[in-house]
Amino acid sequence: MVVAAIVLWLGxxxxxxxxxxxxxxxxxxxxxxxxxxxxxxxxxxxxVGRERPIVWNIRGERGAKGAPGLVGPQGATGxxxxxGxKGAQGETGSSGAPGSRGAPGLRGQKGAxxxxxxxxxxxxxxxxxxxxxxGxxxxxGxxxxxGxxxxxGASGTTVVTGxxxxxxxxxxxxxxxxxTASCDSGELLGGGGLVTTTSNKERVHLVASYPSSExxxxxxxxxxxxxxxxxxxxxxxxxxxxxx
Length: 244
Fold this sequence. Notes:
Layout: E1 6-10, E2 13-17, E3 26-32, E4 38-41, E5 51-57, E6 157-161, E7 165-166, E8 176-182, E9 188-197, E10 204-211, E11 216-223, E12 235-243
């Protein structure tokens, strides 16, 4: 039997132990009331008087499983093992779904030209195209036969000067001045014209110059911008070309 002196701390009090004991895997002690002194024994029946038994396991309970450790580095590839025997042929599996369409293959070489096929039916006429550019002038054709003699023309042409018509001084905008020139009786009117006279030409616009009858040429002008100006006037004079 082994006698030992052991000092334990229990609840902050130092206690003495004078005897070792306990069953396999456990330790048994008797704690004395008052000062908490522990005494190791082999069985709880050894506690007497004011002592109370205390039992605890020598080895603690197994703890919870720890978290998995980090994955270690992959080892080197081992040598290939011997080929096993060929197994029996399995049953034919069901047809799988069609795979995706592959990329187009390379373009093949151009084949030989085939025989010309029969002529197809004529198609409908297409719409008329736009007019093309004018072509170069062709050579001059031969002179045609002389035509019949026409009626005699007028024997002479004279210029008839009409009476000038003058506006009032500093005429307002849109003031219209009209003048005429007429042929004598029996004469034909062949054309005509006019002359406008003013110191501010940019303020006067021609409105009309036309044959108002078979023998009379009429000319009109208008004040187009603001007024003509102080003491300024506009004069219109018509002319007629008369033929007898």
